[in-house]
Design goal:
alpha+beta; 3-stranded antiparallel β-sheet; 3 strands; 5 helices; 163 residues
Length: 163
């Protein structure tokens, strides 16, 4: 296993380099109006979903997990993981605005434009023990349709529940 500090899913290794931090000014002008910030946030939420599965596969604990550090700059918290019943893999997650974390930086309310909740779904991880499962899912999707794939069905129903 790669050292936690050098892992490609560590925020400081592959996260955005010039990300404005949330502060009291966000009470008046949301950073989500900035296209770069919005794109970086969405990318980081997706990367968090990947990191959750990598943490699970590498049997990381809360103390050395990679995923939580991706949420800190945006003031969101993990509220639900989406798990594939067939193999226990994490294919997505729901993140919600973390008011207590925002208050630490004097952000009193969720800024206008910031989503209350975010659904992030990850794509394929090309690790040896998962690649076969993805190939089977791709074939199932191709021949049977997306409603048969458990992760797609669960992701769709979770999105409906959020709306």
């Amino acid at each position: 296993m790669a050292n936690h500090k050098d892992h490609k899913y560590a925020f400081h290794v592959s996260g955005p380099q010039h990300l404005p931090s949330l502060n009291w000014r966000n009470n008046f002008n949301s950073t989500w109006k900035d296209e770069y910030y919005k794109q970086a946030a969405i990318s980081c939420f997706t990367r968090t979903a990947y990191a959750l599965e990598v943490d699970r596969q590498d049997k990381r604990t809360q103390e050395n997990a990679l995923a939580p550090e991706w949420l800190i700059p945006f003031k969101y918290k993990l509220t639900k993981t989406l798990i594939d019943e067939r193999d226990g893999s994490i294919f997505g997650a729901i993140f919600e605005w973390d008011q207590s974390a925002a208050l630490e930086d004097s952000v009193l309310i969720r800024p206008l434009g910031n989503p209350k909740a975010v659904l992030a779904l990850r794509g394929t991880l090309t690790k040896r023990h998962t690649i076969r499962r993805y190939f089977e899912d791709d074939l199932r999707f191709l021949f049977l349709g997306c409603w048969i794939c458990s992760s797609i069905g669960k992701g769709t129903s979770t999105r409906r529940d959020l709306c």
